[in-house]
Amino acid sequence: MSDVLCIYYSFSGNTRRAMKEIADAVGAEIVAIDDGADRNGWRGRLRAGKDAMRRSTAPLKPFTTERNIEDYKLVIVGTPVWGGRCSSPIRGLLKRRGLEMSRVAYVLTRSGNRRCVSVYDQMDLYTAEKHLLEVSLQPGSVGYAFWRDKFISDVQQYLESGHVG
Ligand SMILES: Cc1cc2nc3c(=O)[nH]c(=O)nc-3n(C[C@H](O)[C@H](O)[C@H](O)COP(=O)(O)O)c2cc1C
Questions:
Q1: Atom of ligand 1 nearest to the CA of 39
Q2: Which of these, 135, 117, 45, lies nearest to 82 by C-alpha position?
Q3: Atom of ligand 1 at shortest range from CA of 84
Q4: The whole model's pTM is what?
């Protein structure tokens, strides 16, 4: 049973890949969440963008974790950036379960050059404590592996020492 939970939503696979790489490196349990919404085609993507902008969420499909969420040493939450915000399934997760997360880190994936750091503060509105660690990854970019590996090393350091930095 791992001390670390990687929990994420991914529509087109980028966040899934990043979270799998991170989970493999730190030996974390990995869980995908889904709200069952159909986001295929341009209509689906448009709806995804609108939902993110309006901060609307839908109930999540049931998921299980090996421990209670509050019992992990660290919960790493992964989301794509949608319209400069976190994805609506992850907002739904944080709205419903965020108060169980007091040791939390964030992984964003995005397509643009802007790191979208305001998303971290949006996500912190729902958690019991502000996040400890963060990374914003641009899949396919030159810096992707560097920033992913720096985040992995920050997580490992936190797990060894119990504090950040
Ligand atoms: C509806 C929608 C809105 C998006 N908005 C942004 C954005 O504001 N900024 C950005 O950099 N990328 C944006 N993207 C791109 C995704 O964040 C990026 O491709 C991400 O890595 C996708 O992750 P996934 O493959 O796990 O779904 C958007 C994608 C979608 C579908």
A1: 31
A2: 45
A3: 8
A4: 0.98
Tens digit of each residue's pLDDT, the chain (165 residues): 999 999 999 999 999 999 999 999 999 999 999 999 999 999 999 999 999 999 999 999 999 999 999 999 999 999 999 999 999 999 999 999 999 999 999 999 999 999 999 999 999 999 999 999 999 999 999 999 999 999 999 999 999 998 887
Q: If you measure from the C-alpha of residue 1 to the centroid of ligand 1, how many angstroms do you get, rounded to a whole number?
A: 32
CA–CA separation, 18 and 73 (whole Å): 20
Q: Which of 55, 111, 113, 115 is the pocket-test mutation for ligand 1 (most atoms within 8 Å of CB)?
A: 111
Distance from the Cα of residue 119 to its chain's centroid: 11
Give the chain's domains with CATH numbers: 4-161 (3.40.50.360)
